[in-house]
Amino acid sequence: MSHSASRRKLLQCACCAPIAAAAASLPFAVRAAAPSKKTDLNAEQALQVLRDGNAAFVENRPKKVISDSKRRLELALGQTPFVILVSCSDSRVPPELLFGRGLGEMFIVRNAGNTVDTTALGSIEYAVSQLGVPLVVVMGHESCGAVAAAVSVVEQNAFFPGAIGSMIEPIVPAVLAAKSKGSDDLLAASVKANVKRTVDRLRGASEPALLEPLRTGACRVVGAYYTLKDGKVDFFDV
Length: 238
Hints:
11 helices; alpha/beta; 12% strand
């Protein structure tokens, strides 16, 4: 055997050893068990779970969630989320807390303004087609900064440099649509219009990963609006 071949073999063994050691340290049940199955909930049931969880949050009776070591070991084998939530990155909008859910239950796609670009769409398609998630919720919220920035672009011809401008651009049509209807609260109306545009886009998907589940009713897309002051999530366009 040549010197270079011997060196390659030595490196391979060195790289594999930590992985083998880590696997050996896991409990046998974790190493031997089958991957998690898909959720048993349908879209309507998943939506009701969210409604119930948010009601508890609003009434200041938070649900107890399981996040102990046993649950973490279960999730090491695979995830079984029952909902895909497209929401804003705003720190005041923590999805699991709003709905009283724990580890491995919500597949969350977050960005400022809760828009859906190619990356977000791919994440949604993956969760629907590969994880069998039955419900997609697109959620905007009160006093959204990204939508407020888009409103300032429309109302004041504001300019935002760099990637911020690109981030806001997809929201501008929603602001224009809301403005054309003469709403008294342009920001709130724009947030809801932005959600509706995204819901409509997802419902009109042409890729098989979304098209077929939506056509058969295996998956459903709805909109939602979160009010910061009272903690309530209102679902619409359901």
